[in-house]
Design brief:
The chain is built from three helices and eight strands; from the N terminus they run E-E-E-E-E-E-E-H-E-H-H. It is of the alpha+beta class. The relative contact order is 0.24.
């Protein structure tokens, strides 16, 4: 399950902050760190891109407002198995987080019940995503070190 580039769909996802109610959520595994932690992103449908910017698959970096996002548009096949997201989907650099592998394995035990593997990101998209995040001033340095 926890392989770099995997897109996992959790039913539901339990947020570590404890403030948000559990809900179905996609998660993209960006990196494994010392086989103890993962760096992951929880993509969202929420479009926070300034309205004058085209929303097509790829990186958006707006240093003047300290903004970074990677977009997957609905027309782009994103997985090796030929899947697409149903909605334009956004990854925001400031929303990366560390998650404990042990915690994930404890909470999400049963494949196809607790989670489903949506697919593995195409390698070129995975590399573009990492490059986008790695080169952004909007991403915290503690993440950049591992990306």
């Amino acid at each position: 399950m926890l392989e770099e580039g995997n897109i996992i769909y959790f039913t539901p996802f339990y947020f570590s902050n404890g403030k948000s109610a559990p809900k179905p959520k996609y998660c993209i595994i960006l990196k494994l760190v010392e086989n103890q932690t993962i760096i992951a992103s929880l993509p969202t449908r929420r479009d926070s891109i300034p309205s004058n910017i085209l929303t097509q698959t790829g990186c958006i970096e707006l240093p003047s407002i300290d903004f970074n996002s990677f977009i997957f548009d609905t027309a782009t096949e994103i997985t090796e198995c030929g899947k697409y997201f149903d909605f334009n989907t956004f990854i925001y650099g400031y929303q990366l987080d560390f998650y404990s592998i042990d915690s994930f394995n404890d909470i999400y035990r049963i494949k196809d019940t607790d989670y489903q593997i949506f697919g593995k990101l195409k390698s070129n998209l995975y590399q573009d995503l990492l490059t986008c995040l790695r080169n952004s001033n909007a991403v915290k340095k503690k993440f950049i070190r591992h990306l």
